[in-house]
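Is this the right way to post structure tokens for a design question? Let me know if I should format differently. Anyway, here goes:
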């Protein structure tokens, strides 16, 4: 008997020591660093008007919600209030052309490495920022051209990026499950818009990454094989709106009872462009894709109706009040 207690006592002490050592390790290591991947990105020449227009549209759809500061009117960053409180305080960085406080001193290759993998030029892993793994090279070049342009959003702004204040939980996640995405060798070429289903697939996993929010959970999303994410496009991912209130992403597969199988193309276009769904106004963080073209909404409709239908009746959590 005594022997057993001694063994159990020993195991318990060992378990406590392991937990304490892990906690000290996480606390000391903080947010991990990684080798910066070498991206073969040619410096982007001053953009032609069509390229700048595309860049503006992509930045407005996929970067501005986090990086645009309403006070400065520039992409100078601000605290993200729609991240879970348990993560601590998270701040989007200043990505204006300021060489000291923005990204004016970053090379295009460094920006592309960060966009695709999450690893910054200083090797620090950038948290929360999505990874644009399959965005086409053409789209990435348009984003770069916009960041280098004369647009008021990107004018040098001397506001320093706020230090991150990650909670212990976020640090623990960053040392275990939250990892940079490996660089997928290019070239990354988008299908022709006339190839509607293939183009819609590109929009969902590459350009706008709808699948990230609309699959079951960020933690089970598969960045390298998005279609293998748990509950792909079936919704139910627990997100937070601009007021910090819980909001579940919705089922956007073609299931007739619980998805968008009975919707018309015009209803989908209205949900995307003006945030008006047959269920009522859509809350943040669902972006408003105000400049989406007819070709894009038609392709999204064709693709979403073609994916495996999932039955997932997502409750409309809390009153659907428009927040943007
Ligand atoms: C969900 C919010 C979110 C979105 C969307 C987002 N970012 Fe970020 N971004 C962040 C956060 C947060 C940081 C700071 C992360 C850190 O320091 O750990 C960041 C950091 C960066 C940095 C590094 C700057 C620095 O000095 O460290 C660049 C460059 C950047 N973002 C560009 C972009 C571009 C371009 C887009 C759109 C294509 C984009 N981001 C979309 C949240 C976001
Ligand atoms: C940052 C997360 C996020 C991204 C990215 C996102 N969505 Fe959403 N989406 C949501 C949330 C959250 C809701 C639910 C809003 C509500 O209930 O008020 C929603 C709602 C919707 C709805 C309404 C469905 C219904 O039943 O009313 C459609 C359609 C939709 N999204 C399609 C898309 C498409 C297509 C894309 C990509 C082009 C996309 N979403 C990108 C978070 C996101």
């Amino acid at each position: 008997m005594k022997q057993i207690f001694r063994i159990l006592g020993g195991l318990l002490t060992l378990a406590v020591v392991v937990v304490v050592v892990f906690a000290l390790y996480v606390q000391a290591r903080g947010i991990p660093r990684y080798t910066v991947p070498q991206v073969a990105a040619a410096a982007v020449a001053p953009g032609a008007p069509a390229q700048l227009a595309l860049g503006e549209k992509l930045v407005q759809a996929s970067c501005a919600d986090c990086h645009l500061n309403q006070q400065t009117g520039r992409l100078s960053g601000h605290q993200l209030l729609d991240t879970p409180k348990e993560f601590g305080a998270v701040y989007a960085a200043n990505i204006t052309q300021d060489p000291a406080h923005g990204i004016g001193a970053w090379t295009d290759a460094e920006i592309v490495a960060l966009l695709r993998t999450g690893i910054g030029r200083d090797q620090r892993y950038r948290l929360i920022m999505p990874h644009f793994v399959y965005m086409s090279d053409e789209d990435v070049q348009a984003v770069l051209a916009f960041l280098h342009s004369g647009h008021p959003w990107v004018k040098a702004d001397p506001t320093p990026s706020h230090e991150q204040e990650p909670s212990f939980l976020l640090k623990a996640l960053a040392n275990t499950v939250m990892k940079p995405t490996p660089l997928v060798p290019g070239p990354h070429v988008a299908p022709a818009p006339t190839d509607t289903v293939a183009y819609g697939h590109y929009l969902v996993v590459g350009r706008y990454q709808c699948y990230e929010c609309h699959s079951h959970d960020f933690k089970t999303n598969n960045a390298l094989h998005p279609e293998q994410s748990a509950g792909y496009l079936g919704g139910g991912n627990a997100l937070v709106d601009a007021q910090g209130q819980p909001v579940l992403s919705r089922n956007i597969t073609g299931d007739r009872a619980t998805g968008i199988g009975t919707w018309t193309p015009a209803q989908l276009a209205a949900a995307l462009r003006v945030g008006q769904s047959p269920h009522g106004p859509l809350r943040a963080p669902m972006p408003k894709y105000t400049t989406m073209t007819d070709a894009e909404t038609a392709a999204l409709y064709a693709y979403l109706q073609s994916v495996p239908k999932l039955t997932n009746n997502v409750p409309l959590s809390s009153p659907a009040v428009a927040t943007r």
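Format looks fine. Someone answered above. Worth noting: Residues 84 and 211 are 19 Å apart (CA to CA). The pocket of heme C (ligand 1) is lined by residues 59, 62-63, 65-67, 80, 90, 92-93, 95, 103, 111, 114-115, 120, 126-130, 132, 143, 161, 164 (CB under 6 Å).
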